[in-house]
Amino acid sequence: MYKIKLYNNIAPIGIQQFTADYEVGDDIENEDAILVRSANLHNIEYSDHLKCIARAGAGTNNIDIDACTQRGIVVFNTPGANSNAVKELVFAGMLLASRDIYGGISWAKTQQNNENLAKDMEKQKKKYAGTELNQKTLGVIGCGAIGVQVANLALRFGMKVRGYDPFMSIDAAWNLSRYVHHDSDIDDLFRNSDFITIHIPLNEKTKNTINKETIAQMKDGVKILNFARGGLVNNDDILEALNTGKVAKYVTDFPTPELVNHPNVIAIPHLGASTAESEENCAIKAAQETMHYLQYGNIRNS
Ligand code: MLT
Questions:
Q1: Does 22 have pLDDT greater than 70?
Q2: Helix (H, G, I), strand (E, B) or coil at 160
């Protein structure tokens, strides 16, 4: 009998995957495996039996990978299981950054007593006029499971797409449309994009990828989207660039107090993967990979 310890909000369908050979719960001791969504596992006590940690999601920065490596504990995630959800929200963000949908909705909500609504609506057309995605250039930093989906959808919006990824997997390369221009130098992507979206993991090398120097290379009025991790963008530098107008909009799934009130920041409370479908996909995949690892000692995820 294998023992599986659960940490926070694993969709029930994931737990249902485990067969009768597994004891599963959040109060399990001497666990063989941990299943986690986004709870912080950095300072927890691991059981001596622990063989693997499955992260039901993409980012693994809530897990102390170095400590796990030292103890021979394998950590894996569920690549691709939430990419559709993130892709869709990236496009919602891109549309919000181009059309003042939020301003228009807020205005409409104050009009319940307006007897001249039809006439006044005419005046709003100019005030809330925006721009189109069609024919704009989107730069996608990181062409993994999410970046590939974003790039391919952007083509359907009529966008020109550039992708940068120094470590593209064979699967990702296969799934990427041949109409995506591949930048071997990230600076080319910075220089040529109207929108930049970032889809890479956060680590010591990628921290502050968007900073004063990289922003200086970008087009004036660039719009930046961050649905990956807050630390990939330097908040002080992006705020300064928003104040000068160098960056026209910053759409982020990682609000911080200094950012949220800026008129050109669109901040969302880390909802990228928060759909019923994505949570179920991640939970199923994490549970199945955990059983596979415990039985066969290898990982099928790329
Ligand atoms: C992920 O890393 O899977 C996403 O950011 C979603 C999440 O952590 O909830």
A1: yes
A2: strand
